[in-house]
Design a protein that fits this description.
By secondary structure, the protein is an alpha/beta fold. It is built from 16 helices and 13 strands. The protein has 2 domains: 184 residues, Glycogen Phosphorylase B (Rossmann fold); 181 residues, Rossmann fold (3-Layer(aba) Sandwich), CATH 3.40.50.2000. The longest helix is centred in the last third of the chain and has 18 residues. The two termini are 15 Å apart.
Length: 372
């Protein structure tokens, strides 16, 4: 089967991770897969092409489509030519822009239009408009995959045909998180973290929906009771500078490490004793699955599909969103009870191995492409 995975990207985040993991697993199963991305000039070429660089590093075929704006007729024609020239049978888009371009480029019958809805974040009236536009085009797709039950519910509420809608969970390659290439203490030393301390960390884009301001407030509460503790933030984004300033204003700047954007996520996770997610909204977060695969106990806000992933608290502690005291209390529970931490980590690892592997995800998408 010849499949084009199509995404409009500003960097390498959760959806991009899914695209690459899925493409690699499909290819390993014998499908001919190409990862396509748009060169979004308004977003910066570096962010647009990073997903292709990651795909190339995994031996995948890639294609960059030049795009001069939010609606470029030339880009539609270029995607259409590429589909015809390469005998693409399935066009699998990710995100509102890719959905629109995929639909408009697909003129001939016999090619399957599939999309994945990762999450809708209506943080502004502008994004709300694009969400409404996305839903309009989604009704015309052959199959719509939601990454969680909550996203599926939103699709159905928007009038999407339930016969076209299926829930397919995200999946990750488990092997690379089992044996990081660097020693834990070496990673910590490189980050400026001293030995023999407890490290709570997180990985993600530094944007409002991640709730990192709440996590910093929780960190202050934890550090009032436990001095032998550090907090590690891995990632970049529009709020990074503000969060750095907040850590200093809270008086905890010396105990908070901002590692910035990193590609060595297994090594970053190896440096952590606990993974913390403080999001206000999520679909099915890849960063959480990766932390579970790395064998880390987890504390997370109870949003999106997280309670299901964490087996209602059996594979990780849950806290209400936007509740810094609740988040701090959960972190302290894990810090104070090594036996609990061990049980949570073991349960999380078992759950991700059984339910969230990239191999399982690829098999479910392959069935979706075939109409099974």
């Amino acid at each position: 089967m010849r499949v084009l995975q199509l995404i409009s990207s500003r960097g390498f985040f959760g959806a991009e991770n899914v695209v690459v993991e899925l493409a690699a697993s499909l290819a390993s199963g014998g499908d001919d897969v190409i990862v396509g991305a748009f060169s979004n000039r308004h977003a910066g070429k570096e962010g647009s092409s990073e997903v292709l660089e990651r795909a190339k590093a995994m031996g995948l075929k890639t294609e960059l489509f030049e795009c001069s704006g939010r609606f470029d007729l030339g880009t539609i024609k270029a995607v259409r030519r590429f589909i015809e020239k390469n005998g693409i049978e399935v066009i699998h888009s990710h995100g509102y822009k890719s959905n629109i371009y995929a639909y408009l480029a697909n003129r001939r019958p016999g090619k399957k239009l599939v999309t994945t809805c990762h999450n809708w974040i209506n943080a502004s009236s502008k994004m709300s408009f694009y969400t409404r536009l996305d839903k309009f085009f989604l009704r015309r797709f052959d199959a719509i995959a939601a990454v969680s039950d909550a996203v599926k519910d939103e699709l159905l509420a928007a009038g999407i045909d339930p016969r076209k809608t299926v829930v397919i969970g995200n999946g990750i390659s488990l092997e690379k998180f089992r044996q990081p290439s660097a020693d834990k203490e070496d990673v910590r030393a490189a980050l400026g973290i001293p030995p023999n301390v407890f490290v709570a960390g997180t990985v993600g884009r530094m944007s409002p929906e991640k709730g990192y301001d709440i996590l910093l407030q929780a960190a202050r509460e934890v550090l009032k009771k436990k001095e032998n503790c550090f907090f590690l933030f891995v990632g970049d984004g529009p709020q990074k500078q503000a969060l750095e300033e907040q850590s200093r204003s809270l008086g905890i700047g010396g105990r908070v490490i901002f590692a910035g954007k990193r590609s060595d996520i297994p090594e970053m996770l190896s440096a952590m004793d606990l993974f913390v997610m403080s999001s206000h909204t999520e679909g099915q977060p890849m960063a959480l699955l990766e932390a579970m695969a790395a064998g880390k106990p987890v504390v997370s806000t109870s949003v999106g599909d997280v309670p299901k992933i964490l087996d209602k608290g059996k594979a990780g502690l849950l806290a209400p969103p936007a509740d810094s005291l609740g988040l701090a209390a959960a972190i302290l529970r894990v810090l104070d009870d090594p036996a609990l931490a061990g049980r949570l980590a073991a349960s999380a690892l078992r759950n991700v191995e059984e339910n969230y592997s990239s191999k399982k995800m690829a098999a479910e998408y392959r069935d979706c492409y075939k109409g099974n």
